[in-house]
Amino acid sequence: MKLSSKGRYAPRAMLDLALNYGKGPVSLKSIGRRQEISERYLEHIMIALQSAGLVQSTRGSRGGFSLAKLPKEIKLSQIIQAVEGSISP
């Protein structure tokens, strides 16, 4: 299976959120800077992850994204499926 750039970047963004779990929302800007992903592209990825129930957003000056579940409850296949659609060889 060949992954698109979304399929490669989404796990990196989720790992970033997992490493910051419990510290409050993480801004797209900080995730993008650490993971070297443009904020604009990351926005699209996060919308897909939010629709899948994997992340939640917080609005405001201290807003950002955080995991919607415990890190140990999230599977790589869920992340890939959220941004790529159906997983089939």
From TrEMBL:
<dbReference type="GO" id="GO:0005829">
    <property type="term" value="C:cytosol"/>
</dbReference>
<dbReference type="InterPro" id="IPR000944">
    <property type="entry name" value="Tscrpt_reg_Rrf2"/>
</dbReference>
<dbReference type="Pfam" id="PF02082">
    <property type="entry name" value="Rrf2"/>
</dbReference>
<dbReference type="GO" id="GO:0003677">
    <property type="term" value="F:DNA binding"/>
</dbReference>
<dbReference type="InterPro" id="IPR036388">
    <property type="entry name" value="WH-like_DNA-bd_sf"/>
</dbReference>
<dbReference type="GO" id="GO:0003700">
    <property type="term" value="F:DNA-binding transcription factor activity"/>
</dbReference>
<protein>
    <recommendedName>
        <fullName>Rrf2 family transcriptional regulator</fullName>
    </recommendedName>
</protein>
<keyword id="KW-0238">DNA-binding</keyword>
<dbReference type="InterPro" id="IPR030489">
    <property type="entry name" value="TR_Rrf2-type_CS"/>
</dbReference>
<dbReference type="InterPro" id="IPR036390">
    <property type="entry name" value="WH_DNA-bd_sf"/>
</dbReference>
